[in-house]
Amino acid sequence: MLYTYAFLPNLPRSLELPFGIAAAVELLQVDDLAAIVEPHLAAETLHENDDRLMQAVVAHDRVIRQMFQQTSLLPLRFGTQFVSRQGLVEHLEAHQSDYVAKLERFEGRAEYLLKLASVSLVEAPIAPDLKGKQYFLAKKEAYQAQVDWQQQQQIELQAIAEAIAGQYSDWVRGDSGAAQGDALSKVERFYILGDRVPERWLYEQLSVWQRQHSAWEISLEAPLPPYHFV
Fold first, then answer.
1. CA 173, CA 195: separation in Å to the nearest integer?
2. According to the model, what pLDDT value does residue 127 have?
3. Domain span at 52
4. More confident residue, 124 or 204
5. Whole-number pLDDT of residue 45
6. Are residues 22 and 86 in the same domain?
7. What integer pLDDT is reported at residue 182 of this predicted model?
8. CA-to-CA distance for 104 and 120, rounded, in angstroms?
9. What is the predicted pLDDT for the residue at 179?
10. Where are the alpha helices (DSSP H) in 69-107?
11. What CA–CA distance (Å, rounded) separates 158 from 143?
12. Can you give the CATH number for the domain in which 170 is found?
């Protein structure tokens, strides 16, 4: 078995190869392409127990990120393997033009995760001495304020999505989910494929969006390999 991490350009310069999951990785070169591989590692053995599996997942991601600091690449899913060296060679030969075109598209670019966490509305406390109709009206007003705030969040979320679409041709909206440790807070994710050199502009744009949309807390994570665009 030939465990495979990523495909990359076959560069004339040497690359610093990291340690893999269980051994040092190697480069398998085929014409204009190369593959980062770890020979003699069977993906099936990585599922023997949860600890080994988690360590392998982290190592897989680490290898891809370390190589991404040196060159553009096409990251492969955890557990990708080929039955033989010849099988991988034939695969690269058959898909040479497609992979080379993708690598040219990703040259000098990175994936940025724009994360939006919904801001909870701070409710004004209801006076403890309210009774009957007054108490009911106060509860009704509090409920309506929550509804209005949620509607405002949806309006701002749509505005942010439209702003991203207007600025970037390559972007993907991720799945929604609850914030860790806070089931009431909603998290939205947008993956943007942007140029790495002028990334300062993206951070400046983020600060503009944050000032315009107070119902969401917006953050931007470090540049990643193009996981969502391969």
1. 18
2. 67
3. 2-106
4. 204
5. 87
6. yes
7. 60
8. 43
9. 66
10. 85-94, 96-106
11. 23
12. 3.30.70
How would you classify the pairing of strands 81-82 and 2-9?
Answer: antiparallel
Q: What is the percent of the chain with per-residue pLDDT over 70, rounded to a whole number?
A: 93
CA distance linking residue 202 with residue 170, whole number of Å: 14
**CA 48, 225, 101, 17 torsion-angle sign:** negative
DSSP letter at 45 equals G
Residue 58 has pLDDT above 80, yes or no: yes
Q: Angle at Cα 227 formed by Cα 70 and Cα 119, nearest 5°?
A: 115
**What distance in Å separates the CA atoms of residue 142 and residue 124, rounded to the nearest whole number?**
8
Where do the H-state alpha helices sit in the chain? 50-68, 85-94, 96-106, 132-167, 199-212
Q: Averaged over 117-140, what is the pLDDT?
A: 75
Tell me the mean pLDDT in the region 147-159. 94
Q: Are 112 and 131 in contact (CB under 8 A)?
A: no
**In angstroms, rounded to a whole number, what is the distance separating the alpha carbons of residues 230 and 221?**
19
Residues 144, 85 share a domain:
no
What number of other Cβ atoms are within 10 A of residue 156's Cβ? 19
- Amino acid identity at 46: L
